[in-house]
């Protein structure tokens, strides 16, 4: 009798969890269909499902604070959106490019890279994309399965996939919801004290090897853009960090060689002499403040026109 009761209890518990899981999924799907999702999901949803701009910028927080789409639009005569997302790396960029190109082909994709993007360990914060698992995005499914290993079975659960969204929905009632304003650009204020220059004396070893999976991500982005007729442009914004190797350490050399091998324009402003002399234009050593972003965007447009002849006539 006790064994039967235990079996029934386990059965009803499993049934209750399954029902809760199903209802939670229905609630999130219904909510997201009627309301904007908070945080980085605003940008992800927009890029994957609604963006239609001529030029999309993809990258990390460094990109978010560096490129002002309105200035680029006024100068280039193209619509532009800054799709940078905080703390992301190449696997995330590949997922975004694949999702965007499955729906439409912008004329240009600007891929903002950091010097370690080909050398990072792991897959970064790819779990942010859990809500899109099993929704027809091959790269998202691949990276999430790889990141979660044996735990991938939980990706079939709504409670697991949507837990970050559920938390963010609750938090938005405690603080204002972030909006996609300024076409994705998020300005940094001018800090009370400018950052101090970081001088990296140690030379990077030429024996250091790129992460093969991250290099594959980069080449996949190149192929996706080429197959869709999208012009890919790789760039690296200014740093207030003095790099070794006369400003071209092995990390940037590896990226430069990849771009050259595949005929991809590479605009490397990480060691711009102008910005290295202007700490007042930075928020911290890796991010520009608003005034720095204005100046850099205009300078970047000039470089863009030099690299892409067709843009110089716009």
Helix share bin: 40-55%
Mean pLDDT: 85
Looking at CATH, the homologous superfamily of the domain at 54-120 and 184-312 is SGNH hydrolase
Subunit arrangement of the protein: single chain
Globular, elongated, flat, extended or rod-shaped: what is the shape? globular
Order of helices and strands: HHEHHEHEHHHEHEEHEHHH
Strand portion? 5-15%
The low-confidence runs, each spanning 5 or more residues with pLDDT under 50, are 173-178
Strand order of the largest sheet: 2-1-3-5-7
Structural class: alpha/beta
Q: Outline the biggest β-sheet.
A: 5 strands, parallel
- What gap, in angstroms, lies between the N and C termini? 82 Å
CATH architecture of the domain at 54-120 and 184-312: 3-Layer(aba) Sandwich
Radius of gyration: 22 Å
Count of runs of 4 or more consecutive helical residues: 13
Level-1 CATH class name of the domain at 54-120 and 184-312? Alpha Beta
**CATH third-tier fold name of the domain at 54-120 and 184-312:** Rossmann fold
Number-wise, the strands total 7
Structure description:
- With 314 residues, this protein is an alpha/beta fold.
- The protein has a domain at 54-120 and 184-312: Rossmann fold (3-Layer(aba) Sandwich).
- The protein is built from 13 helices and seven strands.
- The chain has a five-stranded parallel sheet, with helices on both faces. Strands 4-6 form a two-stranded parallel ribbon.
- α5 packs parallel to α9 (212-228).
- The longest helix is centred in the first third of the chain and has 33 residues, at 2-34.
- The model is unreliable at 173-178 (pLDDT under 50).
């Amino acid at each position: 009798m006790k064994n039967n009761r235990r079996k029934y209890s386990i059965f009803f518990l499993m049934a209750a969890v399954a029902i809760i899981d199903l209802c939670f999924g229905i609630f999130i799907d219904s909510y997201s269909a009627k309301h904007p999702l908070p945080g980085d999901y605003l940008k992800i949803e927009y890029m994957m499902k609604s963006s239609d701009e001529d030029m999309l910028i993809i990258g990390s927080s460094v990109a978010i604070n560096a490129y002002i789409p309105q200035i680029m639009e006024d100068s280039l005569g193209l619509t532009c959106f800054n799709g940078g997302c905080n703390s992301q790396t190449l696997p995330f960029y590949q997922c975004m490019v694949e999702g965007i190109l499955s729906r439409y082909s912008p004329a240009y994709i600007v891929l903002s890279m950091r010097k370690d993007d080909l050398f990072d360990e792991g897959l970064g914060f790819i779990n942010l994309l859990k809500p899109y698992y099993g929704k027809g995005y091959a790269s998202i499914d691949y990276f999430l399965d790889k990141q979660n290993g044996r735990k991938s079975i939980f990706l079939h659960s709504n409670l697991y996939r949507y837990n970050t969204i559920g938390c963010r929905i609750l938090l938005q009632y405690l603080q204002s919801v972030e909006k996609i304003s300024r076409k994705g650009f998020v300005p940094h204020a001018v800090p009370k004290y400018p950052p101090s220059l970081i001088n990296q004396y140690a030379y990077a070893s030429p024996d250091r090897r790129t992460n093969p999976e991250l290099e594959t991500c980069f080449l996949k982005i190149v192929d996706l853009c080429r197959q869709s007729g999208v012009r890919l442009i790789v760039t690296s914004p200014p740093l207030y960090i003095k790099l070794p190797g006369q400003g071209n350490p092995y990390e940037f050399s590896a990226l430069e060689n990849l771009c050259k091998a595949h005929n991809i324009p590479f605009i490397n402003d990480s060691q711009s002499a102008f910005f290295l002399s202007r700490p007042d234009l930075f928020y911290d050593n890796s991010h520009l403040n608003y005034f720095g972003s204005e100046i850099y965007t205009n300078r970047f447009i000039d470089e863009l026109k030099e690299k892409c002849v067709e843009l110089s006539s716009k």
